[in-house]
Structures are given as C-alpha cells and as structure tokens.
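Example 3.2
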Amino acid sequence: MARSQTSAASVLRTIADDKSIELFTTVALETIDSKNLKSKTKLTRKQYYSRLSRMTSAGLVRRKNGKYILTTFGRIVYDCKVTIENALNNYWKLKAIDSLETSNEVPKEEQQKLMETLLENEKIKAILEKGFSAETTLKRVTGR
C-alpha cells in the first residue's frame, strides 16, 4: 500500500459493508486458510475475492504461509472498529454524557465523575478524558 494512494475514506470504504466487516473480523480473530475463510463467511467466490483483494490493496490483510492475517496497519484499523462497536454498545450512556455537557447546571468535575461511573469501558473513558483535559487546557491557555 502506497501512502499517497490511500486515504482514510478509502480504507473505511474497504470494510464499510456488513460482509466486508465480517470477513475482516474473521481474519482478525482467527488464523485461517483461504478455503475455510471463504466457507466460514458464506460469501460467493466473487464477493470473497473482491473483498479480500480490496483489503489487501488497502494494506489491511496479507497472506502468510497460506493463511490470511492482519497487517500491523490492519490491527490498528481493527482496534478502531472494536472501539466503534464499544461506543455503539454504550450509545445511550454517551447521549446522557452529551446532555450533561450541554447543561450548565452540572459542574465539569461532577460531569467527569458521572462519566466515570456510567462507563465501564476503559478505552472509551480514556478517549473522553482526553476531551475533558484538552478542553481544560484550552480554557487555561485562552482564559475562556
């Protein structure tokens, strides 16, 4: 994959449909040969090879000893996919946090405590805490 030929949008398009994400996830979770991968995903021959070709071209997967595996880049993209799924699983809790943030009635410190109580996923907490610390830093620097 040449960096100049690939964009975030093209990588995301590569795994954007349900069948592609299932294929990508199967490669991520199992060391599996092509025959078993094709039968496990229940894709037609054309669907299977066109999706794998796009994933290979995007630098997400590669073959090693006759089996498909994620590349280092593919592992990072897979980790982002898992984070998105975790966020979807916590959607209503995240909406509640949004409501707290738009309300001027709850102090920021209390908002952060509530966020930590509502959310169990450490990665999502870390992402949101980065937002809190960035906002706090910006306020200190700009005086707003």
